[in-house]
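Collaborator request, handled under Task 6.
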Amino acid sequence: MFFEQAKVCNPKIIYHIFGSGKINLVIEMGLGATLGEWYHLAEHLSEHYTVLLYSRGRNVDIPRIPRNIAVECHELLCNLGYADKLILLAHSQGGLYAQQFARLYPESVKGIILLDPLSANDSYYKTVFQSPKEQRMSGFDKSANFRIMEKLAKLHLGFVIKSIMRKAPPFYYYHNFSTEAERNILQELTHPELHRAALEEYSLAHETSEIENLLTKAGFPNVPLVLITHGSTFEIKEIMEFGETNEEFAKKVESLWQSLMMEYLSFVTKTLHLTAEKSGHYIHLTEPELLDKALVWIENESTVE
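Structure tokens returned to the collaborator:
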């Protein structure tokens, strides 16, 4: 697959367009994700849409605040040509950037699909889980993982990273990646810049001064919004497994996580909430059919006056 390098304010953005015509669907990936994770999904979605799949780049010279990321995405779209209205499909931390984009360019947004999205109020977890141990067990604090991966990459221990990641997400949830997709995922993860940029994204997404405008629904365009969240029963088991914690603590984590995501349903008047009962955080890999359902709903709602 041939990838283009963006000639925009962030030259380290890599992208590919699936389908033909003007772009009308943008995929905003999760924190530290690589393009290979979404190849097969973008190809499937291109049966009905022209899809932009892009990486947010490895350039930390440009502060990785939500506003900068949204502006970069818009500039890329302007260079490539896009339809009058876009559907934003965002996973995890990508949800924060999708809502920032929607606030900056409301006239360009047709609808939004959020998959287990990060909330601008995510830092609230620090008031619930106050000790470093609790924060590690909860899984809310992602910084340690990115520091470890960056260190391994700097030491040129790519073979260690690849060995670890073959048993971790996204491979943990999906086993049918093409050879090309698998190569992209593993190769990208050996670059220290990827982890450094992800760590900065994570840190700045929890800086009140950088996300103050995202904390409430004020300024959010009233467009159809689909929120797809993981199944609680499924996720509680995963929290217990990966956090090495008990069921009571896992239920506390899950309750907070769900409540933070549900805030998005108060942002607009047209909403649809879907629960991926058989999924954890990587819903797009385990229940991709929900993406099709969400898109059909947005198209139907968009035609209603």
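The cover message to the collaborator said: "Residues 247-262 form the longest helix (16 residues). The chain is about 45% helix and 15% strand. Please let us know whether this matches your experimental observations."
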